[in-house]
Amino acid sequence: MRRFVLCVMVILAMGVFSVAGAATFNVSTEGEFQTALTQAKGNGEDDVINVQNSMNITSTLAYTGEQGHTLTINGNGHSLDGGNTVRIMKIDTTGLSDDTNSDITVRNLAFQNGKAESDNGGGLYVKTKAAKVTLENNAFSGNYATGVLLIMAVAPM
Known about the structure:
Strand 1 (22-27), helix 2 and strand 2 form a beta-alpha-beta unit. The chain is globular, with a radius of gyration of 18 Å. The chain is built from two helices and twelve strands, in the order αβαβββββββββββ. The strands form three sheets. Strands 1, 2, 3, 5, 7, 10 and 11 form a seven-stranded parallel β-sheet that branches. A three-stranded parallel β-sheet has the order 4-6-9. Strands 8-12 form a two-stranded parallel ribbon. The protein is an alpha/beta fold. Residues 4-20 and 153-157 have low confidence and may be disordered. It has one domain.
C-alpha cells in the first residue's frame, strides 16, 4: 500500500511541474489569436502561439506583455492580411512596471496590407521600455502608416 501511495504522489507531482512551465496555443482564426494573446498576458507562464493558417485581420491584434515571461509567436510561414484597413498587430509592454525580463519573439510570419492612419506601424507596431523583442524571418509588404519612427537598440555582443 505504501508503494502505491508513493507512486501516486510522484505521478501527481510530475503532472503539476509539467503543466506549470508553458502554455501553447494553436490558432486558426483572428478571434482565437486575440484570445491567445489576452490569455498569454495574464497566465503567469511562458507562452507559445502557433499560427495554423493565413488570416484576414479586421481588428488590431493587441498584446500588452507580461512581466518576467516570454511570448513566442510562430507564424509557420503563414500571413496576416490587414486588407488595407487596419493595423495588423500591436505589441506594447510600456504599461508594465518593469518589462526588462519580458521576451517576445515573432518568427516566420508575413504582415501584409496593414494600415495605420494615426500612428506608426501599419503591419506591426512594437513599443517597449526594455523588453527583448526578436523578429526572425518575417516578411512585410504593402503596409502603410502616416508616421514613421524606427528606433533600434543593438546590444554589444
